[in-house]
Amino acid sequence: MPRVIARLRDFVAAPSRGVTLPDGRSAFLVCVHGRIAAFLNRCPHQQVPLNVPEGDFLDAGGELIQCGMHGALFLPESGECVFGPCQGQRLEPLAISINAEDNVILTVE
């Protein structure tokens, strides 16, 4: 069942945000170059949340997703790790869409 997990206006103040999915899993969304992507909040290296310690999901330049624990860097388009201990692995993507009311919808749970 499709569910609203964010709104486009949420990304005006900050280009990333954590969310809790309806099933209780932790996830996050990033907006890079006007494109929104969503992933489970779990680094493939040691299965820890990416924003630990508490922080943002993007690197200082706002271009790449970064694991706060290990410094691994991931492409926001695909979730592929391009630097760090899990290079070549990927974040687990979530299927999302944007409806006419500018809501970000989780399309598959």
TrEMBL record:
<keyword id="KW-0408">Iron</keyword>
<protein>
    <submittedName>
        <fullName>Rieske 2Fe-2S domain-containing protein</fullName>
    </submittedName>
</protein>
<keyword id="KW-0001">2Fe-2S</keyword>
<feature type="domain" description="Rieske">
    <location>
        <begin position="3"/>
        <end position="87"/>
    </location>
</feature>
<dbReference type="GO" id="GO:0046872">
    <property type="term" value="F:metal ion binding"/>
</dbReference>
<keyword id="KW-0479">Metal-binding</keyword>
<keyword id="KW-0411">Iron-sulfur</keyword>
<dbReference type="GO" id="GO:0051537">
    <property type="term" value="F:2 iron, 2 sulfur cluster binding"/>
</dbReference>
<dbReference type="InterPro" id="IPR017941">
    <property type="entry name" value="Rieske_2Fe-2S"/>
</dbReference>
<dbReference type="Pfam" id="PF00355">
    <property type="entry name" value="Rieske"/>
</dbReference>
<dbReference type="InterPro" id="IPR036922">
    <property type="entry name" value="Rieske_2Fe-2S_sf"/>
</dbReference>
